[in-house]
Every structure is written in C-alpha cells, then in structure tokens.
User: Which sequence fits this backbone?
DNA sequence: CGGCTCCTTGAGCGCTCTCAAGCCCGGTGG
DNA sequence: CCACCGGGCTTGAGAGCGCTCAAGGAGCCG
C-alpha cells in the first residue's frame, strides 16, 4: 500500500489538477507528495476530495507583506480539498512526504463524511482562535503538543514525529521561531517532554501538559 | 414584523429549548431576545436552526480561568443553532435586543443553505485565526470595523450601530479593553472614523482602513 | 444627587519579539 | 578523511507592543 505509487516529480509546487491526474493513473488512486511541496489551487471549482493516508499537510494563509498563519495541521485520516476547506484563501503544503488517496469519485456515500469533516475543521478553527486570542506562549505550545500527539502518534508509546519545523510551529501558534524553541526546551528541561533528535517527541507528562494547556500552573519565566 | 413577538422574560440565561418554544408560539416563528441574554445550550442534540432578523449574537468560548474568546459575531441574515456551529464548546450571547426566526421546521430545502452557512463560518474562523495570530492591534481594529460595517450598516451612509462593548471587541480581537479604546480613539483623531455617542460609528475613510487592515501603513505609535 | 456601567487616558511593566551569535548535523566535494 | 557549507535549532541581550493598574469622565437611571 505504501509503495504502490511513485512520488510526483520533484517540483516544489503542484497544481491540484496534477495531483488528481496522478491519483487517477494508479488503480487505487493514491499519490505521494514530496516534502515541502506546495499544493497550488487554481480557480477551477473542483470538488475532488483527498484523504491523507500518511504524512502531514498544513493549511495556511498569507498577508500581503508575507506574514504567514497556518490555520490547520492535517494528519492521517483527515480529508482535504476544495470541497472541504473551500481553501477560500488558503494555500496547502505537505510538510513531509505525504500519501493521499483520491476519494471523491469513489463513492457517493461520502457526503456525510465530508460534512463531518467540515464541522471538524470548524470546531478546530474556533478552538484555535481561542488559543491564538487568549492563551500564553507556553499554553499554546502545550496545546499544540497534545494535538499533534493525537494526530501523529502510533499506538507504540507516546512518541510521535514532529513534521513541523520550529518556524511552522511559530506560524501555527502565532509566535516566533525563537519563542517556540525556548518553550520546547523549557518543557524538556522540566521533564514534561523529551526529544530524539529535534523532531521526534515523547510526552512524558501528558497530565502536566494538559494542565498547562488549560491555562493552569505555568509560571511565566520565559 | 418587528412587533409581532414579545420579548422573552427578563432572565439573563435562556435555554435553546425555551427559545424554540417561544418561536413556536407565534405564527411566524419569531422570538425577541433581550440584550445581554446568554443562550444556554443543553446537551440535547437539537438541530433547530435560527436566522437572525435583527440584532447581534456573539459566539464565544471560555477558558477554565475565565478568559473569554469571541469566535464570531453574527449579524442579520446569519444562521445559528446547534446544527450550524455545533456550538461545540461555544456559548452564545445576544449583545442587544435580537430578533430570531426559527427556520428549521419550515422547509427542507434549507440543507443547502445550512451547508453554505457552515462554510461561511469556517471561512470566517480561519480568517479570524490569521487576524489573531499575525495582525497587530491596529490592524485588528481596522479589520473588525470593516467586518462590522459589512454586517450592520444599512444602505443609508456608512454609519452602523456598534453592538459590542469595548470589552466585547477586546474578547473578539484578542486584545484588552484599554487597547481597543486607544486605537478607536486614535482612528477617530486621525479622521478615519467618527462616533456618535460611543456606539454609533461612521467609516470616513474606508480605503485607509482597508490599507491598515491589510497590514500596510500604520506607524506603531500606540 | 448618588450609584452604576462603560469608556478614556496615563504611567509603568513584562511577555514576546527582534537582532545577533553560535551550535548541530547532514550533504558535498576536494 | 576532512573542510566547507547551509539549513535548522538554540540561546542570549535588549527593545517594544500591548498589558496591568489606576484614576477620572460620561451617560443613564433611581
């Protein structure tokens, strides 16, 4: 299942149409997107929907001067496409090698699932607004770690692959790269988490993180 | 149309069920909600949907320690209810006397409209996340004024009623009451807007506000 | 007139940003 | 095998935007 499709060409930007074509060339409608590929979404009103099988996709918005806000991080199982996020004003980027399956044309019973997916996006977007508007930097990092653990950890222990760079995390959480790094390392020093390399993370004290994420106990030391 | 229904009792908190009952007691299914009424949403999975005819409703989330984030401001024409916003973890509050119409049971052709409404909520929530994560205080205020003008101004000139207090604006924009007041008055001194009383607003220089909202020109003076 | 809520304005603080330097590590080529 | 390079990460020092605390004004209602 993993090796059934070849990676797309090494282009950094792939139009959604090309992705659809690639999927349709395989019998199981699966495509593999190289790391750091930007998915370009032409104005055509395609309603094709993809399911992420493996990997990680970020939805982001840009301000005219280049400031970036990642509005959602999508892990395995999540749906995306113009039909879902409308991708109104969003771009999408695969943060690592990502496998997607084209699911639209496969079955019509999909509508209910797409509906559920949109509601999930809305629920997450509103929770994220609360994070961005009212949580401190430490609370944001803790919240993010719990969310990512939920989306990316296997059943084997609490470790998970952090597909986001510090910069990605900053753009997701409304912080700067340096602040993200400081709090991650603070949490490591305090024993809440540990790293393997810079990008594999273990939650050693999930309860502690949840307390911090909820806005309790975390002295503001920087 | 405005006087067809009597205001609900003066209680500050109204369960959604009561609102539905009140609507059903009038032939046109309209209810009037007093200012500052909190709409309580019991766990029952009612999918009834309301359309706002007049007034203003805020959807908000609370953190355990009382911090509040308003995740959306709904004006006339917008739909709301458990079926729309799921009201996952949201509360709702009428910011002024608000007239709503119960539309669910009326017609089945409503589904497409509800779908559109959810997508609109998602689009707005993601744009708001970008505002909260990446815009400065002045940019947030300018963006908010333009949004509110769009939702609440009649065709008669650019004036509109500001149903939100400074505190509401702060909770919507991820700021404090004082910062909101400072920037509103700064914009007034600069001739971008003017007030009648504290709560009727005129956009004198919409283009200027749009430039600021987009992140251009606005010296950080405070 | 007093009391209330909401708003305005000032002064100073602090959390997070900015700027800067240096480290880690994998890749590449001599 | 090692030097070099570059991207990503860490850490420090200082600055600034927005917050906190505080006082007072404006409008409303009894």
Assistant:
């Amino acid at each position: 299942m993993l090796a059934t499709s070849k990676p797309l060409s090494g282009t950094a930007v792939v139009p959604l149409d090309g992705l659809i074509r690639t999927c349709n060339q395989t019998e199981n409608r699966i495509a593999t997107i190289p790391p750091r590929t930007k998915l370009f979404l032409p104005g055509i009103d395609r309603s094709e929907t993809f399911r992420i099988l493996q990997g990680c996709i970020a939805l982001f918005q840009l301000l005219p001067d280049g400031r970036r806000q990642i509005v959602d991080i999508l892990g395995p199982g999540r749906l995306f496409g113009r039909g879902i996020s409308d991708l109104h004003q969003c771009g999408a980027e695969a943060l690592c090698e990502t496998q997607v399956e084209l699911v639209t044309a496969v079955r019509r019973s999909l509508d209910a699932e797409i509906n559920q997916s949109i509601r999930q996006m809305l629920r997450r977007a509103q929770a994220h607004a609360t994070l961005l508007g009212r949580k401190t930097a430490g609370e944001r990092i803790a919240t993010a770690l719990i969310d990512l653990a939920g989306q990316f950890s296997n059943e084997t222990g609490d470790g998970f692959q952090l597909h986001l760079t510090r910069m990605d995390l900053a753009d997701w959480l409304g912080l700067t790269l340096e602040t993200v790094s400081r709090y991650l390392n603070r949490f490591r020093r305090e024993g809440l988490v540990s790293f393997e390399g810079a990008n594999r993370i273990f939650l050693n004290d999930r309860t502690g993180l949840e307390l911090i994420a909820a806005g309790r106990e975390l002295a503001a030391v920087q």
Chain B is about 40% helix and 20% strand. The first helix of chain B runs from residue 16 to 25. Chain B has two domains: 13-110, 135-213. Chain B touches chain A at residues 59, 61, 63-65, 67-69, 71-72, 85-86, 88-90, 115, 118-119, 121-123, 125-130, 132-135, 171-174, 214-216 (CB under 8 Å).
